[in-house]
């Protein structure tokens, strides 16, 4: 079975995910927001205690709260960082503004590989499809597993809300289009693991989300 373990890190209360196959123990880390030593220890202890073999580092997008632990994870597990190419400027800019947010010990990272719409991430025997869902960030992607009907959406869709669009590269209409034309196209109900807050479902958000609910 696929397992998803979440951690809440840094002052932005960002969700970091470890996704792994509990049979093969192959796994990936998505959006490592760990910055303080105790946060890093919590993440690594979980991986070590469960004998997870981390083989990839994925960013849904590259805002500061989602990339604080990138370089540490790359160094610790000797893995490559995968992002969408359109978010390279987003990632590079973090080094410039991190000190103004108080992250004076930020260690910048660079992407090693680029993901595109339709690419597949394999985690043990499970496959996750890459979705291109810009609007919150220009190179925002999400990861969906149709077998288990789950999506790791980053800052696209939240419980009762959506990602903010007032940051560089953000656009409200683009974000709504991403939600309607990608996440809301699935016939059945999918669990959505967001970049902040608790998980939700496509069925609930289609009906009740004040920003993007579908009209009857």
From TrEMBL:
InterPro entries: MBL_Glyoxalase_II (IPR051453), Metallo-B-lactamas (IPR001279), RibonucZ/Hydroxyglut_hydro (IPR036866). Residues 13-196 form the Metallo-beta-lactamase domain. Its cofactor is Zn(2+). Keywords: Hydrolase, Metal-binding, Zinc. One of its GO terms (molecular function) is hydrolase activity. Transmembrane segments: none annotated. This is MBL fold metallo-hydrolase.
